[in-house]
């Protein structure tokens, strides 16, 4: 399930929805529920759920004595009783029910005398006996949310959820960016920042409700991010083929000046050894266009990574983890637009929940 805060973050960042959003046609109830009914909250990935308001019913329902089923009367907004032999329960589960002209469509709950209206469609569907209208509405809303977002300058797509190496917890996309080099702004790779949403809300609770600009200016927020009290991951996708030596040199150049501050209070020799190991992992023959590099760090101070799908042994170094995320989220990020996009996602994550 996709959390609502992430829907808001996608809108804030101006990212292009992936194919899942475009797949819903104009006759699908799920794609139009949000347009014609009161807004339905989406169940949050972190285990939050909210009550779903009842959908409006514009059709007039006729009271039928006993257990006689109801069917639509063509050319009318009313319902009338029919013989028991034409009972709703007898209709095959795969067969559509008759729509009521000029009204919201109905969803039949087998084993129940209740008919519930779902606005925005002319098709009726059977619902399993154990399902509730709230579950139907939540599923319909979620179906309209894209499963991926596209980094606009490179066209690279990023999944909304990613389970990083050495972790069993899905992390959620906060924002994307593009790494460019030289005065000609050559695109080298696209990147996306992911976080463990539940743990991030807890660790960053002091900043709940803050705007993107407030987070950007608040040095305390930057320090809290780099404390790594919750899981974070970076997914890099190469937009050109480069030698592994060039990739290793680029990361060494970005990380080395940041390591002393990141290693404050730690053994400097251990930090240098950790950086040397990372360089060795990246120094391969070549990293082809489309290849993926994923880094993951958390409270344990362990850097886990994969290079083009091949997992590397983790590096135990909190200093290296801090320096790595400082490259993208620190006071002097290598790509300011990427940091701003990530902060927009974090601001959305930390917005208070509005209950209706």
Written overview of the protein:
It is built from twelve helices and 16 strands. It is an alpha+beta fold and 356 residues long. The chain has two domains: 25-48 and 81-139, no CATH class; 148-349, Chalcone isomerase (3-Layer(bba) Sandwich), CATH 3.50.70.10. A seven-stranded antiparallel sheet has the order 8-9-10-11-14-15-16. A three-stranded antiparallel sheet has the order 1-6-7. α3 crosses α4 and α8 (244-255) runs antiparallel to α10.
Helix content: 25-40%
Biggest beta-sheet profile: 7 strands, antiparallel
The dominant shape is: globular
Question: What integer is the average pLDDT?
Answer: 72
CATH architecture grouping of the largest domain = 3-Layer(bba) Sandwich
CATH class of the largest domain: Alpha Beta
How many strands in all? 16
CATH fold assignment of the largest domain: Chalcone isomerase
Strand order across the largest sheet: 8-9-10-11-14-15-16
What value does the Rg take, in angstroms? 26 Å
Instruction: List low-confidence stretches.
Output: 9-137
Return the structural class: alpha+beta
Give the tally of structural domains: 2
Distance between the termini: 20 Å
N-to-C series of helices and strands: HEHHEEEEHEEEEEHHHEEHHHEEEEHH
* Contiguous helical run count: 12
Share of β-strand residues: 15-25%
Which SSEs are present, and which pair or pack?
Blueprint: H1 4-13, E1 16-17, H2 19-22, H3 29-36, E2 70-72, E3 79-81, E4 106-108, E5 115-117, H4 133-143, E6 148-150, E7 157-159, E8 161-162, E9 171-181, E10 186-195, H5 197-203, H6 212-217, H7 219-226, E11 232-238, E12 242-243, H8 244-255, H9 259-262, H10 268-282, E13 286-287, E14 292-297, E15 302-307, E16 310-316, H11 318-329, H12 336-349
Antiparallel strand pairs: 1-6, 2-3, 4-5, 6-7, 8-9, 9-10, 10-11, 11-14, 12-13, 14-15, 15-16
């Amino acid at each position: 399930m996709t959390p609502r805060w992430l829907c808001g973050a996608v809108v804030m960042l101006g990212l292009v929805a992936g194919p899942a959003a475009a797949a819903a046609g104009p006759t699908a109830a799920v794609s139009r529920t949000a347009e014609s009914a009161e807004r339905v909250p989406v169940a949050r990935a972190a285990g939050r759920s909210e009550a779903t308001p009842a959908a409006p019913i514009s059709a007039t329902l006729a009271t039928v004595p006993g257990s006689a089923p109801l069917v639509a009367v063509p050319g009318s907004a009313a319902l009338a009783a029919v013989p028991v032999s034409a009972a709703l329960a007898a209709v095959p589960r795969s067969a559509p029910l008759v729509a009521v002209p000029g009204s919201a469509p109905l969803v039949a709950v087998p084993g129940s005398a209740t008919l519930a209206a779902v606005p925005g469609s002319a098709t009726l569907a059977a619902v399993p006996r154990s399902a509730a209208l709230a579950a139907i509405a939540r599923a319909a809303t979620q179906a309209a949310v894209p499963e991926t977002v596209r980094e606009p300058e490179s066209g690279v797509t990023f999944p909304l959820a990613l389970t990083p190496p050495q972790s069993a917890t899905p992390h959620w996309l906060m924002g994307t960016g593009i790494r460019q080099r030289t005065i000609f702004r050559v695109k080298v790779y696209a990147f996306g920042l992911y976080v463990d949403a539940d743990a991030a809300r807890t660790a960053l609770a002091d900043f709940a409700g803050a705007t993107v600009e407030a987070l950007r200016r608040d040095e305390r927020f930057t320090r809290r991010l780099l404390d790594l009290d919750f899981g974070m991951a970076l997914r890099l996708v190469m937009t050109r083929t480069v030698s592994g030596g060039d990739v290793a040199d680029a990361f060494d150049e970005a990380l080395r000046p940041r390591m002393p501050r990141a290693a404050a209070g730690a053994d400097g020799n251990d930090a240098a050894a950790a950086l040397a190991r990372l360089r060795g992992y990246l120094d391969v023959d070549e990293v082809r266009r489309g290849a993926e590099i994923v880094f993951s760090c958390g409270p344990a101070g362990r850097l886990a990574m994969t290079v083009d799908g091949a997992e590397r042994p983790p590096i135990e170094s909190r200093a290296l983890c801090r320096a790595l995320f400082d490259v993208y989220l620190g006071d002097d990020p290598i790509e300011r637009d990427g940091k701003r996009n990530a902060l927009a996602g974090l601001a959305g994550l930390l917005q208070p929940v509005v209950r209706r």
